[in-house]
Amino acid sequence: MSTPAPVGLSAVFRAEHGRVVAGLARRLGDLDLAEDAVGEALVVAAERWPVDGVPPNPGAWLTTVARNKALDRLRREQRRDLKHAEAQMVSDPTPHEPTGPVADDRLRLVFTCCHPALAPEARVALTLRLLGGLTVPEIAAAYLVPETTMAQRLTRAKQKIARAGIPYRVPAASDLPERLDGVLAVLYLVFNEGYLSHSGQAVREDLTGEAIRLARQLHEMVRHTPSLGAQPEVDGLLALMLLTEARRPARVAEGRLVPLAEQDRTRWDAALVDEGHRLVRGCLALGRPGPYQLQAAVNAVHTDALDASMTDWSQVVQLYDQLLALRPTPVVALNRAAAVAEVDGPEVALGVVDRLPLERYHAWHATRADLLRRLGRHEEARTAYDAAIGLAGNDAERAFLAGRRDGLGRGPT
Amino acid sequence: MTQYLLSVHTDFDDVAGTTEAEMQQAFAQVDAFNTELQASGSWVFAGGLTPPSDATVVDATGSDAVLTDGPYAETKEVLGGFWVIDVADLDAALEVAKRASAACMGKVEVRPFQGE
To answer: B47 to each of A178, A370, B10, B34, how far by Cα in Å?
Structure first.
């Protein structure tokens, strides 16, 4: 092959990493050894593929090389588990396919990485490292922590998995819904860090893209594992991510955040919107609504409207009513209030918002500011915009809020 | 199989404030839980401890052993009791710990013993 594009290689590596590590980890019973062996195999691939070409089945190729590297190391270290590992490798030549036992391997790995006994930030890092195939420097850069800190976090988590005996398996049916929630929460955390970035940038495409890729993988794994049954929240989370991502091209203009009502809807990604809508319809039809499905449905109502004035706000309020019943948090109540403003007017909404204990949350101040502005209470709005600007996490949002504040006329007060 | 220490950290000042009925309830619950644990085959050892004021710290790291009255660390919450269990993995240990915590009405820390 004459085009040894390193970008292409890293995409292959990321796509295959979870599968190869997961399969090897099961057969070796040692996550750390599996990861190291796959790392060595990737080094060999980076040398050989640009010269010899990418093999027809890169995953199988990496698995074979990594397996040999792992056995070499067990031999070198004269480990007692060598015999067992060798036997596993011979007796279990699991075919490298995207479905069946291999999907099970990756599912096991997902549940291990997202185990509730690990710290949330360790779950995120492990998932990006082992399933996403991101390198330690990449993850460290994404979360703005020094590489050594991220490396320590990963090492500590892997030590706990090994020493505390965190099992490498898909949880029992009785624990599954709860544990799956934990996995979804990790993926949502990665997505939100990308979308509502606190790093100064408006959107971290690396993180939103990675979260979507992992959510797609999880969606596929669940679909190919009939024993899990339908898991509509998995579809719901994927739909929520896709419908949010679809609006990204219109979300920031000239370094300024553009509110939903003012976005150029022709710039939304129609393919992602279609896919998101299909998923939302499919999962809601199962009649087991959950928080992700409901949030996806809210987004589907927005992306259904050709322009903002055609938004079915009463349906948005109804969906938030359902969400609030499942998740009675002030943040959900705040989002609901923004929809109430469109149905019952800003006065009613402000009455709700003012009772919410969210003084530390920039969106609370921003919502209040907008409602006060619409009520013509400009001086109070100005104060609220200032508070929101002080708490906002990125420049695009601050620029939008400052623009609104500076556009305020003199109020009647 | 892995052995885990399930320890209960207690504020003995709080214990002094609990009613006789509450104490009796906790004792009865722990008794029932222990019986269950023994029947399940996960039981290795368990026990409750007297207040930290009964403790003596022994330091023989120097040439002469030094004895000090009182607990090792002057913290509000100290080890009040523990279980040692032998189960398949952390998930199994956490399951036992949930029941232990409910029975003794306290937080339970789960720690694995070192392997061979």
So the answer is: 32, 61, 14, 10
Comparing alpha-carbon positions, the chain A residue that sits nearest to B115 is A163
Q: Is residue B80 part of a domain?
A: yes
- Whether A191 and A241 have beta carbons less than 8 Å apart is answered as yes
* Cross-chain residue pair B2–A165, CB shorter than 8 Å: yes
Q: What pTM was estimated for this model as a whole?
A: 0.81
Domain coverage including residue B42: 2-106
Q: Quick one: pLDDT band at residue A97, thresholds 50, 70, 90?
A: very low
Please list, residue by residue across A289-312, b when 16 or more beta carbons sit within 10 angstroms of its beta carbon and e when fewer do.
bbbbbbbbbbbbbbbeeeeeeebe
Phi then psi for A54, rounded to 5 degrees? -75, 125
The two structure tokens encoding residue A232: 């509509």
Q: Residue ranges of the domains in chain A? A: 1-95, 97-229, 230-242+271-293
Q: Distances from the Cα of A316 to the Cαs of A6, A138, A221, A336, A368, in angstroms?
A: 45, 38, 31, 8, 19
- Tell me if A164 and B112 make a contact (CB, 8 A cut-off): yes
Q: Which residues pair with B112 in a beta bridge?
A: B4
The enclosing domain of B26 has a CATH number of 3.30.70.1060
Count CB neighbours of A10 within 10 A.
16
In this predicted complex, what is the ipTM? 0.86
DSSP H or E stretch at residue B82:
strand B77-87
Sign of CA dihedral B94, B98, B100, B106: positive
Please state, in angstroms and as integers, the Cα–Cα distance from residue A367 to each residue in A305, A312, A358, following that order.
Answer: 22, 20, 11
In total, how many domains does chain B have?
1
Taking an 8 Å cut-off on Cβ atoms, the answer to whether B91 and A164 are in contact is no
**Chain A / chain B CB contacts < 8 angstroms:** 25
Q: What is the secondary structure of A72-85 as a DSSP string?
A: HHHHHTT-TTHHHH
pLDDT class of B28 with cuts at 50, 70, 90: very high
Report pLDDT digits (tens) over A331-376.
Answer: 999 999 999 999 999 999 999 999 999 999 999 999 999 999 999 9
